[in-house]
Design a protein that fits this description.
By secondary structure, the protein is α+β, with helices and mostly antiparallel strands. It is about 40% helix and about 35% strand. The protein has a single domain, classed as Nuclear Transport Factor 2, Chain: A, CATH 3.10.450.40. Strands 1-2-3-4-5 form a five-stranded antiparallel sheet.
Length: about 100
């Protein structure tokens, strides 16, 4: 039983630690990051995401700080009504993920 308790505790700590390293960036901080040229403008990043799926509309987006790397996450709905998740490196604009949302 001790082993099982230890496993649950370790899993809970790992999930908690992961959540602490991936956090939403607040709007006032986004402005500072863009002005400091630490990240590209959100309009630029949205355009890069939409370019992967021409004609798609953005349904949601957020900037997250994951382990010290800024990731811009965009949810799109294409012209066929298919939803896509596109993640971009907010500093470079590189597409890190482009996956159909199930």
């Amino acid at each position: 039983m001790k082993t099982l308790t230890a496993l649950f505790t370790a899993a809970a700590l790992a999930v908690g630690a992961n959540a602490a390293f991936a956090k939403d960036v607040q709007p006032d901080e986004v402005v500072k990051l863009v002005n400091a040229k630490t990240i590209k403008s959100l309009d630029e990043l949205k355009a890069a995401a939409v370019a992967k799926h021409p004609g798609a509309t953005v349904t949601d987006s957020e900037l997250e700080d994951e382990y010290g790397r800024y990731i811009y996450k965009v949810e799109l709905r294409d012209t066929q009504n298919v939803e896509w998740d596109v993640d971009l490196d907010a500093k470079t604009g590189e597409v890190l993920k482009d996956a159909r949302d199930n």
